[in-house]
């Protein structure tokens, strides 16, 4: 995955708070949860109208970098299909912008 397909942000929050905010941000960005592994902090969302259909897939990884501070890394992958239009990374950016409105930035 290239750096151009990722966006990392650091917030003052617990992992649980970050997971809840991530799910809220995904809904605000029009994303659906495709899969998750809470133990590893990895969540996969899709912007396709149907799960596994055309659209952008966003993978989020949440990790605690210090007590009370988490890093959220969003990466995108455009899934191709009939009628697939849009800019690669647009859903990732919408999701990141929504997340930034929900959690305070780390100092």
Structure, briefly:
The chain is α+β, with helices and mostly antiparallel strands and 107 residues long.
| Broad shape | globular
**Which regions have little confidence, pLDDT < 50, spanning 5+ residues?**
82-86
Q: Can you count the beta strands?
A: 5
Radius of gyration: 13 Å
Number of H- or I-type helical stretches: 2
Structural class: alpha+beta
Q: In percent terms, what proportion of residues is strand?
A: 35-45%
Round the mean pLDDT to the nearest integer and report it.
Answer: 86
| Straight-line N-to-C gap | 28 Å
Helical content band: 25-40%
Descriptive overview:
About 5% of the residues have low confidence. By secondary structure, this protein is α+β, with helices and mostly antiparallel strands. Strand 2 and strand 3 form a beta hairpin. The chain has 2 helices and 5 strands, in the order βαββββα. Helix 1 packs across helix 2. The N and C termini lie far apart (28 Å). The longest helix is centred in the N-terminal third of the chain and has 14 residues. It is globular, with a radius of gyration of 13 Å.
